[in-house]
TrEMBL record:
InterPro entries in alphabetical order: 4-hydroxybenzoyl-CoA_TE, HotDog_dom_sf
PANTHER family named in the record: 4-HYDROXYBENZOYL-COA THIOESTERASE FAMILY MEMBER, BLR1345 PROTEIN
Name the record gives this protein: Thioesterase
Pfam families listed in its UniProt record: 4HBT_2
GO molecular function terms attached to this record: fatty acyl-CoA hydrolase activity
Residues making up the signal peptide according to the UniProt record: none
Domain of life of the source: Bacteria
Cross-referenced Gene3D superfamilies: Hotdog Thioesterase
Length: 178
């Protein structure tokens, strides 16, 4: 199975509190670091694939990118590692659109460990990691941001939901020791 989500994988809608499907992966042995848990780089990889799945679901798929020359570029992200994840763990990523304007989209992902490959997180489940992202709609041919087509912006706007309490935070200051 390809790591990157296919259109068919992204189009399966789960019964959760969002209009976007859950994205699933299983932690591979090579994702485990010298501390015995999933290495930080692979959280980014899984979240990146969840973003790809969100793009497919909202019409920003390969055909769109090819025909328009436009894509989403991540301009900013904030990732929180909350709990360790072991090899073989089954992962489910919940994606929420938090806001959209003419050229930008703000969204977040919450990563959960679930019991089986296609399981839905329990309502009381706590994420093992979260990330919040700001993405720009970029015309790759022109090399600058460009407005979303109305149909894409409207689709994104229809999916906007309230931000979780953890979103919008920054990294805490640490005083310099001299």
């Amino acid at each position: 199975m390809s790591e990157q989500p296919t259109h068919e994988e992204a189009a399966v809608v789960e019964d959760v509190d969002t209009s976007l499907p859950l994205f699933h992966r299983t932690v591979r042995p090579e994702w485990i670091d010298y501390n015995g848990h999933m290495s930080e780089a692979f959280y980014v990889l899984v979240f990146g694939y969840a973003t790809d799945a969100m793009m497919i679901e909202t019409g920003l798929h390969a055909g769109y990118r090819e025909s328009t020359g436009c894509s989403l570029y991540t301009a900013e992200s904030h990732l929180r590692y909350l709990r360790e994840v072991a090899a073989g763990s089954h992962l489910a990523v919940r994606t929420r659109l938090l806001g959209v304007d003419a050229k930008k989209a703000r969204f977040c992902h919450e990563l959960y460990v679930v019991g089986a490959p296609d399981d839905v997180p329990e309502p009381e489940a706590v994420p093992v990691a979260t990330t919040e992202l700001l993405a720009l709609h970029v015309d790759q041919r022109a090399g600058r941001t460009a407005p979303f087509p109305d149909s894409v912006r409207e689709r994104l706007a229809s999916l906007v939901e309230p931000a979780p309490a953890w979103a919008g935070r920054s990294i805490a200051e640490v005083p310099a020791v001299r």
